Amino acid sequence: xxxxxxxxxxxxxxxxxxxxxxxxxxxxxxxxxxxxxxxxxxxxxxxxxxxxxxxxxxxxxxxxxxxxxxxxxxxxxxxxxxxxxxxxxxxxxxxxxxxxxxxxxxxxxxxx
Length: 112
Description:
Helix content: 25-40%
Distance between the termini: 44 Å
CATH superfamily: RelE-like
CATH topology: YaeB-like fold
Radius of gyration: 15 Å
Strand content: 25-35%
């Protein structure tokens, strides 16, 4: 019975997909980047957030100290800050990049 429950959870995790929405400010953040970076960011959002956005991994981390969003997607130097709303909706709050330990959104340093 336990094995069946574990298998069911794994299957649900594999097939659950999320609707991804961008805030207006996140759209503006995305426009800040060159076309090549925008393409990488958008493809990565689809690849890493469409399924399993609520599971921590090497790329997806919970942000414990941030008031605006609860999750961060790490894409090399790029960062996508997002929330999970309802059970099937991802809302992209901000898109920026990191230099050393500092986050920049539209070229402006932001505190996390």
